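Q: Structure tokens for this one, please.
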Amino acid sequence: MWTVFRWIISWTRWATYMVKKQLGWLPPPGYETRFPLDASAKETMENETYKQVVEETPAGQVRMKHDDATNTFLYWTDRTIPHYYLDTVARKYVIVFDEREKYCPPSVSYVPVKSVQVTGPFIKCNTKPTYQIEKKMNKYKLMGKFKEEVGVEKINKKISFLEYKHGNYGQDGVALYKTE
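A: Here is the predicted structure, written as tokens:
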């Protein structure tokens, strides 16, 4: 009975794999290992002026920038992109702009933690070692769809209600807020 059950499970896994392979749903082997930190890469002139990179991942096209204030990689895409593909695009970014210190290689470590319990006037220490998982990884923030413009940054300016009501104009001659 169990042998038949195991055979059915292994056959369904194999069949699922073959269907995904034929439909092109499986990523190319080794995409996550592209752009090692000691390599070099180039980007188009337009992307270099806006300090961004554009990469075609197996999950879709991604445009990425880095925000120095929050130490976050900002990205634009039309689909959901897994973190391991975003790490690859982030590696390309730090290689192109020679800012390798901004990239944090993802890692997981187990840190031993001493647990102490205070019950009344006595302190009790646990003899069993306990561990806490410590993850180090880059932060990513989805900023919108791929076609949205990246170069123009909006400036939030505090204005009074009267300026808002009368359509105060900014430095470029464009209304900051329009009321109709």
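A few notes: Residues 175-180 have pLDDT under 50 and may be disordered. Residues 71 and 139 are 7 Å apart (CA to CA).
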